[in-house]
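In this section we walk through a basic example: taking a raw amino acid sequence and producing a predicted 3D structure, encoded as discrete structure tokens. The instruction is simple. Fold the sequence below.
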Amino acid sequence: LAGVLDLNTGRFSYANGGHELPIVVPAIGGEARTVPGGGPLLGMFGQLGVELQEILLEPGDALVLYTDGVTDARAAGGERFGEARFLAALSRRAGGGGPAPCRDVVDEVFAFQGDAEPADDIALLVLRRLPA
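The resulting token sequence is shown next.
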């Protein structure tokens, strides 16, 4: 994923080469949702055909970038944390300010995983457009 976020307008322009799609968490009412886009896995093909996408972040909205280790985390019984559980966790927690919501979501993934071996790396970045 490569993108540019205009801090003045909230416009996020991006292209995705096979990575997890960014997620937007609305500031007021509404659930976390993935943004449109997608493309072939970067480095797998001779020519990369990705499309430029744009979204507008409203004041207070959060943009979430993450690695697949978040959704691929598995409990001891083999159940995946998954996208639906991740979106629900973001909807509950990423609406707050400061670093705590990000930590809370990662802590929820770790609690789900318990003593099971990590499936992959877990990285989470939450960017919030400041209210006007």
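Looking at the output, two observations stand out. The CA atoms of residues 5 and 86 lie 23 Å apart. Residues 100-113 form the longest helix (14 residues). In the next section we compare this with other chains.
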